[in-house]
Every structure is written in structure tokens, then in C-alpha cells.
Amino acid sequence: MKDPKNGVTPCEDFFLHVVEAHILSACMTAFDMSSTEDKPSSAFFAMGSSDLDPEKRLKILLLAVRQVMDKYVDLSMAPEVDNDELAAEASDGDHVLEYASDVLTMGVLYMEFVDAIREADGDRILRCWRYFLLVFKATGRTNYSVEAFKLLAQYDFLFSERMRMQLIWSRTVNVHGRPGKNVSCDLHNEHLNRECKQLVNQWTGIQHH
């Protein structure tokens, strides 16, 4: 990118594209589809299911998605194997599939977190942080683990009911006034800081002239 200042999230955008590609690949494999033009296997979507009412179609879709998630997504956060013998046995597995599963697992969790922020859904944001605590702990990210634990401890044990509501429902800002356009308070502060620095630089330049 020629001007990263005008595109501050290219890495995130690329990662989300990668995750979407993994989701598409997993669904096509599970539904026995060789191309995006194929129809899903009747094992998931029975003949005539497209003619059902929307509520029944949604139930069928959610059941199919759940089966895909159960097969390819692993949120167990099992600790790494230290024993040499067990590690040798684990090394015989399908590492490409394991890597793809890790990308899909972390990717859909992050997508859920991003969507929860955009929709200002405090309950969903908190649920994501519960998983993040497991992820940070399992991967040895001590500082992030502490921050996640502090947030959950404040909500579950330390804060009053009023402070608990403030904690989860005051985490986003919407400066556009449109649904699905919220951003985290931290990111909004970064935007304000950048604008302040630009104004200071402009003012400094005017003073020098």
C-alpha cells in the first residue's frame, strides 16, 4: 500500500477475506459441492426445502451450519502437548487440516467480535471476551489474559449492577447514527488523536509561515 495512513486496516481486511475463503471451502466440502454453482447435498438440504416457509428454512440452515462448525471449528483450547511420545503421535495428523481449522476457529471468533462491536451488542462482546481469555491463556499471552480476566471479574464479581451495565453497554461509539456503524471506544479515541495531531501540525505549519 502506497499510503498506509489512508488505509489503516488493510491487514484486517485481508485476514477477513482469508477467513471467508476458509468458510466457503469448509461449507463446499461439507455440502459435497465442487463449485459455487452446485447445489448442496440433499443430506443437509432435502428436496423441496427451498419451498418451505422462511422460519423452517432458517432452522434447516442453522442445523447445517452447526454441523459444519462442529466439524471444523474447535474452541476447546486444549493445552499444547508436552510429552515427547504424545507429540510424536500428534505429528502424524493432517497438519494442513489442523492449520485450516485454527484459522477458521480464530477467524469466526474474531468476526463475531467485530460484528458485536458494530451492532453495539454488549452481551455478545462479553461472550467473546470469555473465549478470548481462554485463547490468551492457551497461547501464553499473559498481559492480554490479565486484561480479559479483569474485565470478566469486574462484570461477574466486583462491580455494582449499574457499573456492570455501563461496562458492557458503553464500549462502543456511533458517530454516523446508522445501524451497524459502531466502533470501539478505543478506536474512536485513536481517530480523535489522529485528528488532533493533524490540526496541531497544520497550526504549527501556519505559525512557521
Architecture overview:
This protein is an all-alpha fold. The protein has 3 domains: 1-77 and 92-119, no CATH class; 121-170, no CATH class; 173-209. Helix content is 66%, strand content 2%. It is built from 8 helices and 2 strands. The protein has helices at residues 10-30, 54-72, 84-90, 95-118, 122-138, 142-158, 161-169, 185-208; strands spanning 172-173, 183-184. The chain has a two-stranded antiparallel ribbon. α1 (10-30) crosses α4 (95-118), α5 crosses α6 and α6 (142-158) crosses α7. The model has no long low-confidence stretch (mean pLDDT 85).
Distance between the termini: 32 Å
Low-confidence stretches: none
The residue fraction in helices comes out at 55-70%
Number of helices: 8
In total, how many beta strands?
2
Keywords:
two-stranded antiparallel sheet; 2% strand; mainly alpha; 209 residues
Provide the fold topology.
Blueprint: H1 10-30, H2 54-72, H3 84-90, H4 95-118, H5 122-138, H6 142-158, H7 161-169, E1 172-173, E2 183-184, H8 185-208
Antiparallel strand pairs: 1-2
Helix pairs in contact: 1-4, 4-5, 5-6, 6-7
Question: Could you give a short description of this structure?
Answer:
The protein has 209 residues and is mostly helical.
